[in-house]
Amino acid sequence: MLTYFSICGRGEVARLIAAAGEVDITDNVLAPAFDETGGWNQALKYKEKAGAMGFPGVLPLLEHDNLKLYQTTAIESYLAAISPKFASLTPVQKAKDEMFQLIKSDINGTTESLLFKKIDGPALTAAMDKFYPIVEGLLPEGGAYINGLAYPTPGDIAVMVTAMGCMPFRAAPQMAGCAPTADKYPKMMALAAKVAAYGPIATFLAASEHKTLKADPFGIMPDDYKA
Q1: What angle do CA 44, 33, 103 make, to 5 degrees?
Q2: Does 32 map to a domain?
């Protein structure tokens, strides 16, 4: 069982790795993610759930048989490791995936900082002017998936969430006026669209009760950004 809020954030890549990797999980979505003050919804008792496992009061959490995990990348990597779809990935391919997963986590923390008013718009713009070109420059030419396979692997999914996920990945740059565009970052945006259209991922997104990838609880995104 994967437990996370009803937004994209630190849980969406894990959800999509499970979907693309043919791993059947219970997606325990906690909603609403935020209370009337704009802070995390303490009524969801997520801190107590994490604390009962010996973890800090943070999400996501993963429970599988006797295994309990926190830490975003550990959860993502475990789901990929038990996936029949990803079983044949080589150490090199896994390392490339994890590189993009960790870039995504860096971007998550930076964009989240704007939403929680720890940094301002110019600071976020300066950071994203570094992050986005790194991602763009590392992606293969010609629209190929990162590992050159016929299907996306966790690194591709991390890029898609970075480019398309609302909270906080697109919402914060939208507020700061530095949202990525296909004109400026064509490889990143094209890969994101390709991953989103991949059969198992498209099916998951269509069936998602809370539309977590593009959930926009504060109404930040423009009308052409569809949930």
Answers
A1: 120
A2: yes
Nearest Cα neighbor of 6 from 26, 34, 25 is: 34
| pLDDT at position 227 over 90 | no
Q: Are 76 and 130 members of one domain?
A: no
What's the mean per-residue pLDDT of the chain? Answer: 97
**Would you give the end-to-end CA distance of the chain in angstroms?**
24
User: Which of helix, strand or coil describes residue 176?
Assistant: helix
Q: Is the peptide bond before 222 cis (omega within 30 degrees of 0)?
A: no
> According to the model, what pLDDT value does residue 12 have?
98
How many separate domains does the chain show? 2
| 57 and 108 inside one domain | no
Residue among 65, 118, 85, 68 at smallest CA distance from 16: 85
Indicate whether 72 and 135 sit together in one domain: no
Length of the chain: 227
Q: Distance between CA atoms of 194 and 102, rounded to whole angstroms? A: 21
Strand positions, DSSP E, 43-124: 61-64, 67-70
